[in-house]
């Protein structure tokens, strides 16, 4: 008798595409299996969020993502008492839910969060793996599959903001940069549907513009923007218009800088 297994034809189905920079996938897997938290740092649009989604899907873990901002407090993560039908009931926040149920709790732009967030993260991100809930009097031990991942962009806007050493030193850290040329071309082609031969000049342009970071530009062209541009071209938009809308305009508001970028684009793309 043959037993029909309902295996998906493509073993990667449902796993978001991710082109690796180096050994980060193995590093993530080892850290998760040994219950170590991870910190990701790198410029905007270089693949940090995609990496977390990819790894969580590979490991079969749910991800709960919190975008931190300067009003985010510990209570937003842990939970609070709410009035429901005349009664006060405790409602778990995303962190508490993940601690109880397991999976990845991903805190994006962690440097933005209020200082009291570090207080709840500390006992969770060292070998205790505990979440004390003062309001309910509970002390919750994290599920074995629970993992904290935090990320931030150490760019210009965060110069004044940084994590305390006692927080930083609780995480295995991975620094991200943009992919090497060939891999970035491959990734942009997969994401946009545009052929690699047509993506290559866009990646070359982006790499050239990245060298202007710190002089005329605050940030380099992200992989995200190259994908936007390639997607517009794939949809039939003329190259020059796509480059202007998806690469040049998002980079700067200054007319003279924009004009200089248009020139670099014309020289690189040969038109
Ligand atoms: N290495 C990569 N593999 C596959 N896709 C990538 C990769 N890097 C970037 N991308 C693509 O670029 C987009 C932006 O990446 P992502 O959202 O992960 O950036 P980020 O580093 O989290 O940026 P931010 O700091 O602004 O949140 C993704 O939607 C994905 O399409
Ligand atoms: Mg992100």
Automatic annotation (TrEMBL):
Residue ranges occupied by any ATPase dynein-related AAA domain in the UniProt entry: 37-171
InterPro entries: ATPase_dyneun-rel_AAA, CbbQ/NirQ/NorQ/GpvN, CbbQ_C, P-loop_NTPase
MF terms in GO: ATP binding; ATP hydrolysis activity
Statement: the UniProt record of this protein carries the keyword Nucleotide-binding: yes
Residue ranges occupied by any CbbQ/NirQ/NorQ C-terminal domain in the UniProt entry: 184-267
Keywords on record: ATP-binding, Nucleotide-binding, Plasmid
Pfam families the record matches: AAA_5 (PF07728), CbbQ_C (PF08406)
SUPFAM superfamilies the record matches: P-loop containing nucleoside triphosphate hydrolases
Similarity comment: Belongs to the CbbQ/NirQ/NorQ/GpvN family.
Name of this protein: Nitric-oxide reductase protein
């Amino acid at each position: 008798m043959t037993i029909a297994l309902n295996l998906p034809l493509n073993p990667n189905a449902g796993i978001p595409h991710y082109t690796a920079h180096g050994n980060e996938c193995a590093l993530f897997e080892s850290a998760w299996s040994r219950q170590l938290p991870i910190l990701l740092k790198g410029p905007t649009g270089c693949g940090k969020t995609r990496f977390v989604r990819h790894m969580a899907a590979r490991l079969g873990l749910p991800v709960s993502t919190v975008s931190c901002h300067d009003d985010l407090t510990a209570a937003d993560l842990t939970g609070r008492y709410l009035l429901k039908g005349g009664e006060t009931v405790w409602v778990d926040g995303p962190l508490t839910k993940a601690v109880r149920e397991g999976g990845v709790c991903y805190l994006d732009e962690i440097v933005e969060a209020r200082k009291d967030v570090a207080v709840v993260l500390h006992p969770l991100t060292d070998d205790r793996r505990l979440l004390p809930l003062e309001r309910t009097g509970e002390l919750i031990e994290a599920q074995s599959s629970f993992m904290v991942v935090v990320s931030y962009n150490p760019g210009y806007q965060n110069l004044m903001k940084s994590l305390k050493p006692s927080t930083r030193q609780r995480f295995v850290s991975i620094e991200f940069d943009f992919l090497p040329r060939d891999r970035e071309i491959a990734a942009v082609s997969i994401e946009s549907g545009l052929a690699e031969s047509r993506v290559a000049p866009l990646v070359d342009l982006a790499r050239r513009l990245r060298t202007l970071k710190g002089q005329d530009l605050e940030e380099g062209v992200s992989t995200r923007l190259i994908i936007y541009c390639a997607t517009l071209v794939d949809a039939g938009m003329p190259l020059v218009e796509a480059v202007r809308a998806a690469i040049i305009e998002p980079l700067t508001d200054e007319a003279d800088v924009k004009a200089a970028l248009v020139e670099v684009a014309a020289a690189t793309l040969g038109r």
